[in-house]
Amino acid sequence: MIDGKALARDLRARVAADVAALGRAPGLATVLVGDDPASAIYVANKRKLCVAAGMRDLHRQLPADVTQEELERLVEELNADDQVDGILLQLPLPRHLDSRAVIDRIDPTKDVDGLTARNAGLLAQGRTGLQPCTPAGVLLLLQEAGVPLSGSHAAVVGRSDLVGRPVAQLLLSANATVTMCHSRTRDLAAETSRADVVVAAAGVPRLLGAQHVKPGAAVIDVGIHRTDTGLCGDVDFDAVSPLAGWITPVPGGVGPMTIASLLHNTVRAAAARTEVVR
Ligand code: NAP
């Protein structure tokens, strides 16, 4: 079992040490639009852990009926604000808003969620930029657990900008041979059951069962779903855990690493901006 909580705690401690070494408190502006309860909980956790790591919480809350122009104006304001080192736009946005257009406005040097076209492009070219938080967390989990990646076969289920695509890019950069699966994949089990590493990010509760996983494979479950019987992931944990070599639980796997990676990106962004200012 890969203990995401413990690994996230270690990363947050390293981030706090980096903040102390930086000599100033980096500022993180989380932006929450509306009152979706799940998003409110995620943002509250990010803000709490940001402060615990010695950073400044520069949260901005906007009403659900904010216009595209008002939201983009806020992003421009945060771009221009020297106190702000990182901007995190909590997704999803209410339906009337175009999230891609808002993300495109974020200064790439403050894009601590790694979602701007510039950071996505750098990642696609295997160059250094700010990497999306959940994918960066997935790679750290695999590396810290000692899962061999170079030369391995990895299957990623899901191809979103937020998770699947960047996870595949990071695995490729770690020299894995990567298969990307999605909703049109003809035989999902045939693809994933050949893989040494399976990353599940489809957003479908318990999509992957025993037939999808090779004995001894590493299984990282990014999915998170609230059901009548509690939280579950995209992997049927009870069916898969007896045969997996490594597996992440839900909760307590990828989720905590996402926030730790966000804090890591924020201190990196602050350090890079400090260099520019000096
Ligand atoms: P998304 O934007 O809905 O993308 C889902 C992807 O999965 C799409 O590429 C889709 O294929 C593919 N897919 C859907 N059904 C499939 C199926 N039956 N077989 C194979 N592929 C299928 O979701 P996301 O934002 O990437 O998030 C994925 C999951 O991760 C969600 O449960 C989300 O809540 C969770 N998540 C967790 C964290 C965390 O910190 N723990 C962070 C982010 C997301 P098409 O492209 O063909 O439509």
Based on the model shown, name its key terms.
278 residues; four-stranded parallel beta sheet; five-stranded parallel beta sheet; binds NADP nicotinamide-adenine-dinucleotide phosphate; alpha/beta
Short description:
This protein is an alpha/beta fold and 278 residues long. The protein has helices at 4-22, 37-52, 68-80, 99-105, 117-124, 133-144, 164-173, 188-192, 237-240, 254-277, and strands spanning 27-33, 56-57, 60-62, 86-89, 153-157, 177-181, 197-200, 218-221, 225-227, 230-232, 246-247. A 5-stranded parallel beta sheet has the order 6-5-7-8-11. Strands 1, 2, 3 and 4 form a 4-stranded parallel beta sheet that branches.
Topology (elements, then pairings):
Blueprint: H1 4-22, E1 27-33, H2 37-52, E2 56-57, E3 60-62, H3 68-80, E4 86-89, H4 99-105, H5 117-124, H6 133-144, E5 153-157, H7 164-173, E6 177-181, H8 188-192, E7 197-200, E8 218-221, E9 225-227, E10 230-232, H9 237-240, E11 246-247, H10 254-277
Parallel strand pairs: 1-2, 1-3, 1-4, 5-6, 5-7, 7-8, 8-11
Antiparallel strand pairs: 9-10
Bound molecules: NADP nicotinamide-adenine-dinucleotide phosphate (NAP).
NADP nicotinamide-adenine-dinucleotide phosphate is lined by residues 134, 157-160, 162-164, 181-185, 188, 201-204, 207, 222-224, 254-255, 258.
